[in-house]
Amino acid sequence: MTSGLRKKHARVWTVLLFLVPAGIVTGWLAIPANPITEPAAVDKTAALPEILYSLQKKNYTVNLRSDNKRSSLQLEWISKSGLSSPSALIYLASGPSASVTSNSLIGRIEGKGTFYFPLKNDLSTIPGFILYDIIHHQVIDRVNF
Amino acid sequence: MNNEFYIGWMPKAPQGFARHVKRVLLTILPVVLLTGAMLAWLQKRFSTASFEFGKLTEVTGVYFKDPVPMLRVNAGNDIWGNTSYISIPLVGYGKHGANGIIREIEIEHKTSLDHKQVILKGTLLYTDGRTIMQVSSNEIASVKIVPGRTAETATVQKDLGFRKVKGEIIDPKCYFGVMKPGEGKVHRDCAIRCILGGIPPMMHVWNDKGESNYYILVSSTGIDINKAVQDYVAEPVELEARLVQYGDWTLMYVADMKNIRPISSLQLFRPASTIIACGTGCTQ
Amino acid sequence: MGVSYQAIGWNRQKKQYDWLIFGFCCIYLSTFILVTAIFNPEYTFETVLIRSTSTLALLILHVILCIGPLSRINRKFLSLLYNRRHLGVTMFVLAATHGIFSIIHFHALSNVNPLVSLFTSNVNYNSAGGFPFQALGFFALVIFFLMAITSHDFWLHNLSPKTWKTLHMFVYGAYFLVLMHVMLGAIQYERHPAFVLLIALGAAAVLTLHLVAGTREVKKDNSLFDPAVNGFVSVCDVNEIEDNRAKIFCVNSERIAVYRFGDTLYAIHNVCKHQGGPLGEGKIIDGCITCPWHGYQYLPNNGQSPPPFKERVSTYDVRIEGNRVWLNPSPFPEGSERPGTVISQPSN
């Protein structure tokens, strides 16, 4: 290298010696903190105290809850992972292989989280449920305790 | 002194050089490969959102142009006898909102779609049990409109009061499946382009258990705020606004840009407070 | 050196070098895609393509930037330096794949031209965390593009070595742009500390090697000589210079190589006309001083490349008094015939 080029290299690397660490530190300091909002949902319904029936599945746990006096029933749906369908609605099933009927909608699952749905206080038969995708018109799963 | 001398244009390197290069390469190449594998392994997990690319789905519902273009699908009556709906916000092709394509459909069918029962074909995007639908000009011909304003009731609204949340303003089209990631700094330019193209901005909030919630952002008078949020997209922000339950979605009415505050980034100066829109009696 | 013109003078070494680069890139990209697919079944191909090419380009850029100083520290790295431009072009192709796919992915199908969108979508220049990092990558890519298209010796000759070298020194600026592109882009999203650590380690390696190599050069150049006598400076003993080799002396800020060829000493300018390689670290092969970087050759008695080549370097007068070698640092015009000085009584 000519003396001019050597000088240029020396200048460039002297500048970079300060600029590179400064740049890396600036970028590192700028990394944003994870913005957490608790709770993520607007309102949370409280769980009723007693679990009458429970069912564990790979992606979710379903509990049928009631209060101490058995005067109200509640469906607790604990979704452990995200959904892979455009919609996931829970319908009351009249039998193990029943299809979705009118006036049977319980509620809707929205991804990961715990969801509570009030049920009619009728335990004459153990209720079953259908998880249904209303957009693709297909049964995602069935829940029979 | 070792008298070996290397010349690149000779067919073979001297033995000493060849041995040295072999040793160096046997060290560097595995290190680079392992570094690459480690980078691939340490990447943030890809989201489970889905974009049904190439698959069209026919959806029947009532079209509403406000607060954002969406199709309201009847999900049947619940056990208490109330009719339940699923609302599917609509977006256009590419980085465009649905307004353009809806206008094209209205011109083609010579009628307004607002509050009408329609059958639309489109491509679904969904995550966390929420869905949006892309409608492109290829699907205009297949649109079916039931004449006359629908007899179905208006969407139920409920004021949930003010709430301060932390999260990120996203363009839902990318976040709901077109892009992975459809969030964060790497996706920022794309999110801005989508929002400036008319895709309704949403506030995505989450907690440390990974549970998410989505709010559709609208200005306090319901006008389009896409341009106003440009500088706050795809970065962590704190936002305080009035929430209104609108059917199965929650709207977030942003009154003033000072209510959106970037968090945890080195900011040389704060963007000036800008009032997006004022109701009656507001002085700017 | 070949006599007839060839766009690329392929030889066994060059072919091995290129096949190795190509093979390694294929293995790296496949490994990255495979590991991503295993741990992320939900991955999208566009994203994995953008990430695999960018990480490989960045890793190769670090290797490229280390080869120069490593060659100064240990000449056995010269075999990696010879075809470094091939590595540079490979890095550019990978970076361009990353850049073009990113521009299409993030900016196409919108209401403005993708290149306009690149500079107008995010305008948060007042924020470090929000800084429009894509523009930084774009400018780095422009530099790599200019370097890649001018990497062939055709451009070196046409642009003149000085202009060419100046243009190619922009790689240091491009490196900084790339670092900031990553720090203000991917690092803001990928929050695992390993990413920052790797960037810092890479930068530390590049900076340290350049500083070590540079410091050694400065030390060599700062050797002091006694004042000149009749224009000649006493530089060393005759027996310090081996046959067919040279010693380099920095007199009046310019380096001169004093070569011994048989029983004669010759002095020529140390800087090769090709890419500024240190001729004094070369060797006389077939009667020609051969540059250690790319093998350019010069006759010791006149500093001219043997025909048909036309490169010429300055020559200097050198003489021997007793056992001392005396060098006149005033250059003769490039290619001037100088007889050298005969070592009358071999000292070893």
Quick structural gist:
The complex is a heterotrimer of chains A (145), B (284) and C (348). With 145 residues, chain A is an alpha+beta fold.
Secondary-structure map:
The complex is a heterotrimer of chains A (145), B (284) and C (348).
Chain A: H1 3-29, E1 50-56, E2 60-66, E3 73-79, E4 89-93, E5 105-108, E6 113-119, E7 128-133, E8 138-144
Chain B: H1 15-42, E1 50-51, E2 57-64, E3 70-77, E4 83-91, H2 99-109, E5 116-127, E6 130-134, E7 144-145, E8 157-170, H3 172-178, H4 188-196, E9 202-206, E10 212-219, E11 236-246, E12 249-254, E13 260-262
Parallel strand pairs in B: 4-6, 10-12
Antiparallel strand pairs in B: 1-5, 2-3, 2-5, 3-4, 5-6, 5-7, 8-9, 8-11, 9-10, 11-12, 11-13
Chain C: H1 12-39, H2 45-73, H3 78-81, H4 84-107, H5 114-120, H6 133-149, H7 153-159, H8 161-168, H9 170-183, H10 186-189, H11 193-221, E1 233-237, E2 246-251, E3 254-261, E4 264-269, E5 283-285, E6 288-290, E7 297-298, E8 315-321, E9 324-332, E10 341-342
Antiparallel strand pairs in C: 1-9, 2-3, 3-4, 4-8, 4-10, 5-6, 6-7, 8-9
Helix pairs in contact in C: 1-2, 2-4, 2-11, 4-5, 4-6, 6-9, 7-8
Tell me the Rg of chain B in angstroms: 26 Å
How many strands of chain B?
13
> What is the number of domains of chain B?
2
Spatial order of strands in the largest sheet of chain B: 2-3-4-6-5
Shape of chain B: elongated
Q: What is the level-2 CATH architecture name of the largest domain in chain A? A: Sandwich
Class of secondary structure makeup of chain B = alpha+beta
Tell me the quaternary state.
Answer: heterotrimer
Question: H/E series of chain A, N to C?
Answer: HEEEEEEEE
